[in-house]
Amino acid sequence: MTLSPPVEIDSKTPFWKTLLEKLRQIPWTWRITLVYLTVMLFVPIAAMFLKASTEPPARFWEIATSPLALATYNVTFVTSLAAALLNGVFGTLIAWVLVRYDFPLKRIIDATVDLPFALPTSVAGLTLATVYSDNGWIGSLLAPLGIKVSFTRLGVWVAMIFISLPFVVRTVQPVLQEMEHEIEEAAWSLGASQWQTFWKVILPPLFPTILTGIALGFSRAVGEYGSTVIISSNTPFQDLIAPVLIFQRLEQYDYSGATVIGVVLLAISLVLLLAINFLQAWSRRYDSK
Amino acid sequence: MTVNEPKFHSSTAEKDIVKPKKPKSWVPTLLIVIAIAYLALVQYIPALNVFIQAFSKGVGPFFANLSKPAFLHAAWLTLLLALIAVPINAVFGLCAAWAIARHNFPGKAVVLSIIDLPFSISPVVAGLMIVLLYGRNGWFGPWLQAHDIQIIFAFPGMVLATAFVSMPFVAREVIPVLEEFGKDQEEAARTLGANDWQTFWRVTLPSIRWGLLYGLILTNARAMGEFGAVSVVSGNIADKTQSLPLFVEDAYKQYETEAAFSAAVLLALLAVVTLVLKEILERKTRIKDVE
């Protein structure tokens, strides 16, 4: 009872004082983390949003939805999605092969899946542009068919496929690894064909995980700059991607133009981050069932 | 079979029984072939191409390209960027990992997402944010100009961009290890009279060393390989603010394809070393897990 008066006083002290008191009790690891995050992440993000907010909303909308900007969104998002979806299919297949089958050089192949994470993007762009150019190793095979890859939208697609592939494989692989073999065997013993087993037993619980991988790959492909800028001809309305547009605006000292497109991209990556978190929670819920 | 089951404890014995049930088919072979063909088209052929193009005219021209001043300067700058950004991010990553793994608080998932944010922000947007802060018309622009400090189109800006994009790796790799390791041993060390620093140095660090090393390798790879963010803030001036990835692009654009590929080989070797070390470390942690 004698202790109650100080508590009452404490509740009357202004909010900022208790906040300061709490801040003083924070361990120094937290302080370093918070200061670094503030300097490196929060302040820059705030600077960008504030800069964008100095534009009147109508002007903001006008820049954000100018025909050129819309065309770059189209190239960026549609191409990223196409790349991520293709990797959804082939990435799952690669993960499946790596988990379920044994074959020579499997360990090396498993390790090299991460190559796009480790290879600098400008090197990736350089070599993809060469390999898929009209006289490159693969491009020369496609050229007679009338298919041009390097310096077209197809090239941008190839670069996005390259950088987003490991996301799908590495997301699906551990989940496949932990899946119990018995359920499949039960399906077989009940007379299901391999195809039916895959379609009705394996795929449904794996689906949220595959979607997560696709979303991660998509999110990376949308922001990708290095490899795509080199393999693309950066022609407006054809293969110009949104990050390159930002870069071009900056080169012309058009800061507000760059900022508006930047805010659009940032907002979309934040939405994607939320979606990925949601998808991961969903696949975990599936797991616990 | 159910009676005998305990005897078939080894996995090979189990396989012997199960296998005959499965219809032998061509499906696995087909799937393996498709998987490898896809990887070859997307990854292996392009990777091989880097090396073949670089040495297409022999070893002599390759080394001639590598001894040009512009290249040497770019390589030196890349090394310097990594030397500054990696330690800074290691300290931050360790602090963040400790703060997050050792405390339970509401909104932990949100904090983890915030740490991951630099991965989902486009490198160009990251560079743009740095320009908006430190550029001529940026928040700190007037102050910096008054004090004659140049950040954008100069080395400090490149450091900031590099540190930004490689920020989360250490924290990300160390958090799960710290969580798994638990704090029993740390508490034991404390009750035996060790101070914070001793506990960290003698108890925590040895147990997280592989995870930390893994994070450092990834940080280094990203720091040395970053292109987008660095190219926005650096202005890409040859011999001044050109890192190796920028050199590759610049040489390619100027139709000096061989010089571009010579530099690209070095960066590709960096990637190979990264992958090999990654594999070794993963195996080490896996073996520890089994133990």
Tell me briefly what this model is:
The complex is a heterodimer of chains A (289) and B (291). Chain A is an all-alpha fold and 289 residues long.
Distance between the termini of chain A: 49 Å
- Low-confidence parts of chain B, pLDDT < 50 over ≥5 residues? 1-15
Oligomer kind: heterodimer
The poorly predicted ranges of chain A are: 1-9
Structure, explained:
The complex is a heterodimer of chains A (289) and B (291). By secondary structure, chain A is mostly helical. Chain A has 15 helices and no strands. Chain A has helices at 4-12, 15-25, 28-53, 57-64, 67-100, 106-112, 115-118, 121-131, 139-142, 153-178, 181-189, 194-223, 226-231, 242-251, 255-288. In chain A, helix 11 runs antiparallel to helix 12 (194-223). Chain A starts with a helix and ends with a helix. The model of chain A is unreliable at 1-9 (pLDDT under 50). Chain B is mostly helical. In chain B, 76% of the residues lie in helices and 0% in strands. Chain B has helices at residues 11-18, 27-54, 59-66, 69-101, 108-120, 123-134, 141-146, 155-165, 169-181, 184-191, 196-225, 228-234, 244-253, 257-290. The relative contact order of chain B is 0.13. The model of chain B is unreliable at 1-15 (pLDDT under 50).
Question: Keyphrases for this structure?
Answer:
heterodimer; A: about 290 residues; mainly alpha; 15 helices; about 0% strand; B: mainly alpha
Topology, element by element:
The complex is a heterodimer of chains A (289) and B (291).
Chain A: H1 4-12, H2 15-25, H3 28-53, H4 57-64, H5 67-100, H6 106-112, H7 115-118, H8 121-131, H9 139-142, H10 153-178, H11 181-189, H12 194-223, H13 226-231, H14 242-251, H15 255-288
Helix pairs in contact in A: 3-15, 5-10, 5-12, 8-10, 10-12, 11-12, 12-15, 14-15
Chain B: H1 11-18, H2 27-54, H3 59-66, H4 69-101, H5 108-120, H6 123-134, H7 141-146, H8 155-165, H9 169-181, H10 184-191, H11 196-225, H12 228-234, H13 244-253, H14 257-290
Helix pairs in contact in B: 2-14, 3-14, 4-8, 4-9, 4-11, 4-13, 6-8, 6-12, 8-12, 9-11, 10-11, 11-14, 13-14
